[in-house]
Amino acid sequence: MILRPLRPTAANAEAVRTVTASAFADLDTRPWPPERIDRHRRRALHFAERDPDGCWLAEDAQGRPVGTVLAGVREGTWGLSLLAVGREAQGGGVGKALLARALEYGRGCLRGVICSSDHPAAVRAYRAAGFDLHPAMRLTGEVRHAGLAAPDGPVAPGGPDRFDLLDSVDRRLRGGARGSDHHELLRHFRLLVCDDLAGSGYCYYSPDGGIELLAATSRRLATRLLTTALLGMDDGAEVEATGLTAEQQWAVDVGLAAGLRVSAGGFVCLRGMRPPTPYVPSGAYL
């Protein structure tokens, strides 16, 4: 096995996608639609450009990619965006070696965040690295608008001119702003923003049913944002929101009102911090 830095090239971005598809093939058997392929490639390029010391590719003796890791540092908050090992290389120490490189990149950080599956090897590795494991829930199912109350205040579409507000919310909740991550998120998702006397908050979502990220300074605003995002989807659209720790009961309440199901969904792994709230993390941008 050879580890090499992940350079921001189209070939490397496709290698990351191929390894990821192999690593999680048992959990996700559906073909990847073009927009997901593009989003995944763009993520690899984004992290490789911004965090070159946190992004690595593992290759076998024939030069074939068998594993990858993407990690970022944002104002003292380290995050693991992706750790994937192809099925043919699992159990051979590839993941352990990649995680060690990613953790080294965040050695000086006060805080750390990982959104993990419940895979036993991953859970053991993250706990051994000093992360607290917070069991998480997911919301899934067909959204039903009829069960949702009208939002209790205004929510507006957001753009790059609101990134300073988003960074302020992130610093308050997770200790570090995302900065240019917001440009990448906005490339793929719609942004909702609310800012009034009650506080501030934002939500990235996909009209076809994905809640990518939500952060707010109060549960009232978080409820307003999540409700607005669900109402912005087609009635009956398949919805998924993941990474809900026990502190996010407000999100569970909204999801249940919308007819969604609640189930166990992996772990939010934290080091040097408590679970942010109100907060729905992004698996890719944490």
What does this structure look like?
With 286 residues, the protein is of the alpha+beta class. It is built from 8 helices and 13 strands. The protein has helices at residues 10-23, 34-50, 94-105, 120-128, 163-174, 181-188, 219-231, 249-257; strands at 2-5, 55-59, 65-74, 77-85, 111-116, 132-142, 156-157, 190-196, 199-206, 210-216, 238-244, 261-271, 279-280. The strands form 2 sheets. An 8-stranded mixed sheet has the order 1-2-3-4-5-12-6-11, sandwiched between helices. The protein has a 5-stranded antiparallel sheet with strand order 7-8-9-10-13, sandwiched between helices. A hairpin with a 2-residue loop joins strand 3 (65-74) and strand 4. Helix 1 (10-23) crosses helix 2. The longest helix is centred in the first third of the chain and has 17 residues, at 34-50. The protein is globular and about 60 Å long. The chain starts with a strand and ends in a 6-residue tail after the last strand. The model has no long low-confidence stretch (mean pLDDT 94).
